[in-house]
Amino acid sequence: MLTWKEILQFARHGNPTPDKTIVKSDADWKAQLTPDQYRITRQHGTERPFSGEYCGVFELALYACVCCGTLLFDAREKFESGTGWPSFTQPIKANAIKYIEDLSHGMQRVETRCNSCDAHLGHVFPDGPQPSGLRYCMNSVALQKAEALQAGKTETATFGGGCFWCTEALFESLKGVHSVVSGYSGGQVQNPTYKQVCSGITGHAEVVQITYDPAIISYKDLVTLHILSHDPTTLNRQGADEGTQYRSVIFFHNDAQKITARKVLEELKSEFKQPIVTEVSAFTEFYKAEAYHQDYFKNNPGQPYCQVVIHPKVKKFKEKFGGKLK
Ligand SMILES: [Zn+2]
């Protein structure tokens, strides 16, 4: 989480390097943007308060720079500031925003720009809600919705955290989760068998593939629950189960998932005595496991195998999303 102290540091001594840099001529920006977008982002304009499209809007979405499409903010960090401009407590990534000390109009302020294309976005003030205490005061015109997470539209998450029987049991029957399928992912062998995966030479991890409704349960919730319900600090091991097939892993399906996963791991660092070793890799292929692995606990009642380590904070998820969490 970025602090005001770090922002002042960036504004005065240099910003972190962006993931990409976009340089265009003024004429190109003028041709690409509407007159309002051009005036605000390229000429440091400000839209009238309460006039912007995203003022007072709180549905799930990711916001990107209107000029270059770089992801800047997550609606989950948006709050009602009452100012008439969309306000956020944090950017999506520390290097997404550029900070510049702005001494115009006889005030001492910190201007925010897109760190990739230099678009003027607004300002940031140290009077936002806790825990960050920050208020990113943005022009709606400078933003575009990158990914609308609408009700009814399902998404996929893929996690490994030891034996998939246990992981599947954990996620099944949570509100917003449509299906949980056990399988193999992340290795080199096509259509592997359980026996091959157990030998530890396929590179595959035992994983669950979760289909969920992001309007009800967010990817952030799923990642948090995943990390808090196994031991993410033991490399290639969960309890007595040892081997790369039992590694702690998050296979992300898009950039937004990658960013969220990394953010959650950072936020949960302090919950564990040892460093988190969870792998965060791009999803490639998922192979469904043999039928007898699906719904293992439903079909084998009384099976005492799963000794899932549940963090006390998981209780909160049980209250919110139901399910069979212990
Ligand atoms: Zn930009």
Question: What features would you describe in this structure?
Answer:
By secondary structure, the chain is an alpha+beta fold. It has two domains: 4-148, Metal Binding Protein, Guanine Nucleotide Exchange Factor, Chain A, CATH 2.170.150; 155-321, Peptide Methionine Sulfoxide Reductase, Chain A. It contains nine helices and 17 strands. The strands form four sheets. A six-stranded antiparallel β-sheet has the order 3-4-8-7-6-5. α6 (219-228) packs across α7. The two termini are 31 Å apart. It binds zinc ion. Residues 65, 67-68, 70, 114, 116-117, 119 line the site of zinc ion (ZN).
Biggest sheet features: 6 strands, antiparallel
CATH architecture of the largest domain: 2-Layer Sandwich
- The best one-word shape is elongated
What pattern of helices and strands is seen along the backbone? HHHEEEEEEEEEEHEHEHEEEHEEHH
End-to-end Cα distance, whole Å, is 31 Å
Low-confidence runs (pLDDT<50, min 5 residues)?
none
Radius of gyration: 22 Å
What ligands does this structure carry? zinc ion
Kindly state the percentage of residues in helix.
Answer: 10-25%
Mean pLDDT across residues: 90
Largest sheet strand order: 3-4-8-7-6-5
What is the CATH topology assignment of the largest domain? Peptide Methionine Sulfoxide Reductase, Chain A
Number of domains: 2
In CATH, what is the homologous superfamily of the largest domain?
Peptide methionine sulphoxide reductase MsrA
Features of this protein?
Peptide Methionine Sulfoxide Reductase, Chain A; Metal Binding Protein, Guanine Nucleotide Exchange Factor, Chain A; 17 strands; single chain; binds zinc ion; 326 residues; 2 domains; 9 helices; alpha+beta; six-stranded antiparallel β-sheet; 25% strand; six-stranded mixed β-sheet
